[in-house]
Amino acid sequence: MEQANQTPENTKNEQQQKKKYAVLLTVLLFVIIASVSVIIVVMSTTNKPELTMEQQAYYAAREVVLGYLKAPSTAEFQPYAEGIVAQRGANQYTVNLWVDAQNSFGAMIRTYFMVDVELQDGAWYYTNIQER
Description:
Blueprint: H1 8-45, H2 53-66, E1 76-77, E2 85-89, E3 92-102, E4 108-120, E5 123-131
């Protein structure tokens, strides 16, 4: 059996090599952690526009109207615009909007709705809906 000769110079080279790898691994790990941290900070500080109460009422009314349509998947709603939502009281709104949707025969028909919605405990409820 032959034994490998380990000279002090070989051992010293191996230790230096290990130190280089350890330093390289540490630097690489630091760069990864720093990059992830920057990404998290940027994503958390991105301004997301919040909807106004009127816009929230509009979208709540749209959901109500979907329940009254024969083919809700075909619905094309009037885009939100100022003036179609009126505040009636504290957290109470009337939304006047139209929707194009297929009727029972498959024809696209424009229907006008007036929907009263109310915000209670963070959830929107409708109190009245009228087809005009």
